[in-house]
C-alpha cells in the first residue's frame, strides 16, 4: 500500500550538501516534480511520435526491444527511496530498482510500438528534460 504524498511536499526538498570543511548542511531546493515529470513525459511522447512518423513512415517494424531511463541523482546527491523526493517519485510511479539501486522509468513515451529505436528516442528526450532540472539521468535500451 502506497502512502499518499501531500502536494506541498513535492515542492520543496531538503537535500544534504557536503561543504568543504566536511560539515553537512541543508540546502532548500525548489522543484515542482509533477510539472517536471509531465514535461518529460510529453517530450518523450513528442519525440517518439515524430520519429515513428518521420523516420519509420508510421510502420512498426524490427528491431524490437525495450528502452528506459535510469535516474541516479538530484543536484549531485544520490536519491534515497525513503527521502521526501524518493517517496514523491514513487507516488508518480517511478520506483527504485532493487537490483540496480536507481530509479527507473520503463518506456517513458508509453508509445505502443515494438521498435527499439522509437522507444529509445523517447527515453533520451525524457532523460534530457530531467537533466535540465538537475537530475542525473541516462537513457538505456536493449534488443528483445
Task: Describe the 3D structure.
This protein has helices at 33-54, 84-91, 116-132; strands at 12-18, 24-30, 65-74, 77-78, 95-96, 103-106, 135-143. The protein has 144 residues and is of the alpha+beta class. Strands 3, 4, 5, 6 and 7 form a five-stranded antiparallel beta sheet that branches. Strands 1-2 form a two-stranded antiparallel ribbon. A hairpin with a 2-residue loop joins strand 3 and strand 4 (77-78). Helix 1 (33-54) packs antiparallel against helix 3. The radius of gyration is 17 Å and the shape is globular. The model is unreliable at 1-26 (pLDDT under 50).
Summed up:
By secondary structure, this protein is an alpha+beta fold. It has helices at 33-54, 84-91, 116-132, and strands spanning 12-18, 24-30, 65-74, 77-78, 95-96, 103-106, 135-143. The protein is built from three helices and seven strands; from the N terminus they run E-E-H-E-E-H-E-E-H-E.
Provide the helix percentage.
25-40%
User: Hey, roughly how much beta strand do the residues contain?
Assistant: 25-35%
Number of domains: 1
Biggest sheet details: 5 strands, antiparallel
Per-chain topology:
Layout: E1 12-18, E2 24-30, H1 33-54, E3 65-74, E4 77-78, H2 84-91, E5 95-96, E6 103-106, H3 116-132, E7 135-143
Antiparallel strand pairs: 1-2, 3-4, 3-6, 3-7, 5-6
Helix pairs in contact: 1-3
Question: Could you name the key traits of this structure?
Answer:
disordered N terminus, alpha+beta, globular, 144 residues
Amino acid at each position: 500500500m502506497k502512502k499518499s504524498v501531500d502536494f506541498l511536499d513535492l515542492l520543496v526538498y531538503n537535500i544534504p550538501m557536503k561543504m568543504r570543511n566536511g560539515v553537512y548542511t541543508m540546502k532548500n531546493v525548489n522543484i515542482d516534480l509533477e510539472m517536471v515529470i509531465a514535461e518529460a513525459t510529453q517530450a518523450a511522447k513528442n519525440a517518439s511520435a515524430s520519429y515513428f512518423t518521420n523516420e519509420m513512415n508510421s510502420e512498426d517494424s524490427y528491431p524490437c526491444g525495450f528502452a528506459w531511463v535510469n535516474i541516479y541523482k538530484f543536484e549531485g546527491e544520490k536519491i534515497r527511496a525513503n527521502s521526501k523526493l524518493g517517496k514523491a517519485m514513487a507516488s508518480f510511479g517511478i520506483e527504485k530498482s532493487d537490483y540496480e539501486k536507481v530509479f527507473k522509468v520503463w518506456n517513458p513515451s508509453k508509445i505502443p510500438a515494438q521498435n527499439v529505436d522509437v522507444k529509445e528516442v523517447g527515453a533520451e528526450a525524457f532523460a534530457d528534460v530531467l537533466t535540465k532540472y538537475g537530475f542525473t539521468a541516462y537513457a538505456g535500451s536493449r534488443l528483445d
